[in-house]
Amino acid sequence: MTILYTLVARGSVVLAEYSGTQTNASTIARQILEKTPGNNDMNVSYSQDRYIFHVKRTDGLTVLCMADDVAGRRIPFAFLEDIHQRFVRTYGRAVLTAQAYGMNDEFSRVLSQQMEYYSNDPNADRINRLKSEMGQVRTVMIENIDKVLDRGDRLEVLVDKTATMQTNTLRFRKQTRRFRSAVWWRNVKLTIALILLILVIAYVVLAFVCHGLTLPTCI
């Protein structure tokens, strides 16, 4: 399964959660909630070993999941968006005053079903790719979770580093294309030179042979 753990929370109050395997994801998820206070909307991802914790907060409601790092970001964030919409549609304003785990008995089943769908159904990725092309999946920063848990002020610096890395990547791609073009033209020139050389040699040989055939016969 690609998505292994999910929770829905209001601030640091967990309203529902589900884990598809034995893991300490719940403990780490609560640390993330404590270290990212406030109600500002956000899409962010935190790396931990070979797993990524993806967090989506909209209108004070946080949806978080842990997924394999090979899952990328499109599928997990489409999953989080889906869960957020289902949760708000199901509970409405009750979300604002609900007690801890107040929706867990009912909604944990929804989490389980949607985790299974987004992890294993190929239709999920096709739908998510379409949504991405329509601009509904935002750019997400990925950073190491240890840095966030120890020093919450590293977020801005890491965003800047991400932007720099993207710029360097584009520059590298342009340089690679120019290098390939230069190599191609060099190969074309060498091929033309080789053909001309072969033609010259063939001309000289033919001229020599023809000249030998026309020499006068001595008596």
TrEMBL record:
Highest taxon of the lineage: Eukaryota
A GO CC term assigned to this protein in UniProt: vacuolar membrane
Membrane topology value: Single-pass type IV membrane protein
Gene3D superfamilies per UniProt: 1.20.5.110, Longin domain (3.30.450.50)
UniProt-listed Pfam families: Longin (PF13774), Synaptobrevin (PF00957)
Transmembrane segments: 187-209
The UniProt record lists the keyword Disulfide bond: no
Compartments where located: Prevacuolar compartment membrane; Vacuole membrane
PANTHER family: SNARE PROTEINS, VESICLE-ASSOCIATED MEMBRANE PROTEIN 711-RELATED
Protein's name in the database: Vesicle-associated membrane protein 711
